[in-house]
Amino acid sequence: MARAATLPRLTWQSATLTQVRRESSTASTLRLDVAGWPGHRAGQHVDVRLTAADGYTAVRPYSLASAAGSGLVEITVATTPGGEVSTYLVNDAVAGNHVEVRGPLGSWFVWDVSDPDPVQLVAGGSGVVPLMSMLRTHGSAGHPAPMRLLYSVSDPEQVLYADEVEQLAHAATVLHTRHSPPGTARPPGRVTPAEVEEHTLPATSRPSVFVCGPTGFVEAMLTVLTGLGHDPERIRAERYGERSSP
Amino acid sequence: MSEPGVVPRHLDGNAAAGALAELFGTDITGAMGTCTACGNRAAMAETHAYVDGPGVVLRCHACDSVLMRWATSRRTTWLEMSGLRSIEITVAP
Question: Which chain A residues have any C-beta within 8 angstroms of a chain B C-beta?
C-alpha cells in the first residue's frame, strides 16, 4: 500500500491544446494542459488517443520536447505519409481542442541531470524531438558536462527548433541528406562514419549516447558508434519506424 | 513501401510502454526480460515491437524470437508470453 504513491496506475486523461506552433512544413509543437501532470523525464513520451464521433479510436506515441522540470507538456508531431493522427495534429489541431493522453511513459530512453557523464545525442529527422528535451533540460540546469548533438536532416527547411539548434553553436552539427543550404561545401548525403567520428564526442570520453530516428538510420548509427569504440551498454536507441500509419 | 525482401519495420518496446502499462499497471520499459530461446537479457524498451497488426508483438533483439504477444478486444485481453523466461521489475524505493 505504501507504494501506491510511486506506482500510480496509468490512465487516460483529458488534455486541452493551449498552443500550436509550426516547426516546419511537416511538423508542429503542441502544448497541452493536463490536470495534475506529475512532471516528466527528458526522453519520455506520451500516448495520444483520438476518438472519432463513431467511437473509433487511434493511439500514437509522441515524444515530449519540453524540458524536464519545466512544468510544460509539449510534444512535437511530424506528419507521416497517410498518418491519420499525425496529419490531424499537425495540420488541423488548434488551441482549445481536446485530446486524451496517457503518460509520461518510458523509463529507459531517458536522461537525468543526475548523470554526471558527457552526453552525445544523434538524431535522424524528427528523432531530434526527445533529444531536444534532453538539450533543454541540460541547458536550463546549467549542467557542467558537455552535451553534443549530431543531427541528420533531409534539408534546411525540415530542421526542427532551428533557432535553438543554431544557438548551440559548436555543440551541434547539422548534416543534410538531400539538400544543403547554399554556400555549404558538404554535398548532401547520408552521414558517413568519418563524419560521425569528426562531429561526436570520442569514445574515450565515455559519453552516454542517445540515438533516435528512423529504424534504418538508428541501425546504421549503432553500427558506426560501436565501430568507433563506444560501449554498447552506454548507447540507448529509440526507433521511430518509417511505417505509414493506417 | 512494401518492397520484396524488405523486413517489416519495427519500433522499440519503448513505443509500446503505454500498452504494456495496461497489462502490468505500471511502466515496465526499464524492466529486464530474459529470452526463453537464447537467454539474452535486455530492457523491455530494447525489444523489437511490431505494432501494425491487430495486436502487439515484442521480439528478442538478439535472436528475433517472440517474447510476448497480446491483443485486446473490447472486453478481453489475450496475452502469450512463453518466450519470456523471466522479467525483473524494479520499483522506485
Answer: 3, 6-7, 9-10, 45, 47, 59, 61, 102-103, 105-109, 215, 237-244, 246
Distances (CA, A) of A132 to A43, A151, A159, A207: 9, 11, 12, 17
- Please write the tens of the pLDDT for every residue from A157-173: 999 999 999 999 999 99
Q: Which three cell numbers stand for residue B82?
A: 512463453
CB-CB under 8 Å, B9 with A241:
yes
A210 neighbors A119 (Cβ within 8 angstroms)? yes
DSSP labels for A59-104? EEEEEB-SPTTS--EEEEEE--TT-HHHHIIIII--TT-EEEEEEE
Phi-psi region of A187 (alpha: psi -120 to 50; beta: other; left: phi over 0): beta
Check CB contact of B7 with chain A, cutoff 8 Å. no
Instruction: Give bridge partners of residue A65 from the DSSP assignment.
Output: none
- Smallest Cβ–Cβ distance between A242 and the set B9, B14, B21 belongs to B9
Residue type, B27: D
Q: Give the chain A residue nearest B24 (alpha carbons).
A: A9
Quote the longest CA-to-CA distance of chain A.
Answer: 63
- Tell me the domains of chain A and their CATH numbers: 2-105 (2.40.30.10), 119-239 (3.40.50.80)
Neighbour order of strands in the sheet with B66-72: B11-12, B48-50, B56-59, B66-72, B77-80
ipTM of the complex, rounded to two decimals? 0.83
pLDDT tens-digit readout, A83-110: 889 999 999 999 999 999 999 999 999 9
Q: Are strands B77-80 and A98-105 parallel, antiparallel or unpaired?
A: unpaired
Provide the whole-model pTM. Answer: 0.91
Cβ proximity of B62 and B40 under 8 Å: yes
